[in-house]
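Dear U.,

Please find below the material for section 3 of the report. The protein was modelled together with adenosine-5'-diphosphate; I have listed the sequence and SMILES used, followed by the predicted complex structure.
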Amino acid sequence: MPATAAQSPPPAKPRWIVNPREEIEVLIKARYPLLYVVSWEESRVLADLDAIASRLGKRVYEWSVTHGITRFRAAVDRKPEGRKGTKDPILALREVLEFNEPSIFAFKDFHAYMKETQIIRGLRDVVHALRNSYSSVVIVSPVVEVPPELEKEMTLIDFPLPTREDLSALLQQIKLELAQNPSYQIDLSPAAEEKLTEAAIGLTLQEAENVFAKTLVLTQRLTASEAPLIYSEKKQIIRKSGLLEYVDSSEQIEGVGGLRRLKSWLAKRRLAFSREARQFGLPVPKGVLFLGVQGCGKSLCAKAVASLWRLPLLRLDMGRVFSSYVGTSEENVRRAIRIAESVAPAILWIDEIDKGFSGAQSSAFSDSGTTARVFGTLLTWLQEKQAPVFVIATANNVEILPPELLRKGRFDEIFFVDLPNETERQEIFAIHLAKRNRPYKSFDLAQLARAAEGFSGAEIEQCVVSAMYDAFEQGRDIDTAAILKAIRETYPISVTMREQIEYRRKWAAGRTRPAT
Ligand SMILES: Nc1ncnc2c1ncn2[C@@H]1O[C@H](COP(=O)(O)OP(=O)(O)O)[C@@H](O)[C@H]1O
Ligand SMILES: [Mg+2]
């Protein structure tokens, strides 16, 4: 990733354009000479370009290194040989200048060639020449690789994943194709269709088609009852992409001890994504940032919110975004955003967002330009997003967070999750005893809470668990004394990390709202 781009996050897109697919048409109409459409779905992009071209009275040509420049015809499988010599990217760019009629040139996978100075120069010549023409060059590529020399000439567009309507259309097409085949049972009543599209949303059209086909092969059916199967296939596909994960969690908000203010803030927004809330005029909540001491319930809360609001929960692992073996970091973030937006309404949980920053400081990740770009992308999106994606970010190391993240307009609220106080500790003991089917009334919660001064929720849970191990080994049940013993044997992080915690508290005092 070019280092010079580090300071400049991508330019803000005009607000009135909501759908990137419409944006492409607007830009082509406005005679933008060079667009860069990011997508894995070449055929969908080209079909869109073809539709745009026919509305605007233009022709579509495509370029690939295997065929050179050819006329795009969606219905024809066998491509004619391209224009002479145009497999060579430099000659292809030169050839573009020879066309007189208004055209759209889709250059597929051209990012691979944009590293060479001759190509960069060639593209700049094209931009210059096409500025006063009715033609545009559109680079179509799954990854973002823009050389700094071209940043200003190029408009980047993330092509969205299929919508629910697109998936419905796909289902109808499958139904039509199998209409004559009695061995398949296909039910696309409105309720069934909704379940099936909901299960597949977040996939590319090709992936969805594969999943539907696989389901048909396995079950000979495509009805509402197949939705869980499709959903679990989708989870696999998304997980394989390496950064996002669908989290199916049974954590309930009642299982979170203490954090009263945070919980009531969340409860108040339970119906914020409903149509009624829109009609009432409530804005869609953007997101929330949980900062604080580890083991105090930040991740737990993220999971509980998903059940409370009944929304799908997508977890983005910041550490993985930066690990080089799964694509470029910036592309990873873009892809995650695209999936979350297509699944919306949904919760995007960016767990341990601070990990991204700490990675940037270690020597293994010395390219700090990448970090800046990744966060530039993320911050711009947080600020501008229109899709109902609620972001929950969590962080332990508050001191390394960049101030931009905390600026107004990014999150609706920033909560500091501190170690539980005595009453909260009682609650947390009660929760974890109840979870293990022990009537908490037979324990001296007040004494336990006093003894566990300075313990985090995770440490409290750990004490209950280790007392249970001891008791089990000794062939008896746990009691207050057994847990007290476990407490005495624990060195809580409030002791081992006293200074850091003190620092974080002080840091948070003026900047965040206490969760309790
Ligand atoms: N406030 C709490 N109430 C109940 N359990 C808690 C609480 N805080 C932590 N725990 C227990 O500790 C575990 C780890 O906490 P977690 O939410 O992962 O902490 P972190 O703040 O580091 O994300 C939780 O899964 C839960 O079992
Ligand atoms: Mg956590």
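For the text of the report, you could mention the following: The chain has four domains: 20-158, 164-240, 247-417, 422-496.

Regards,
Y.
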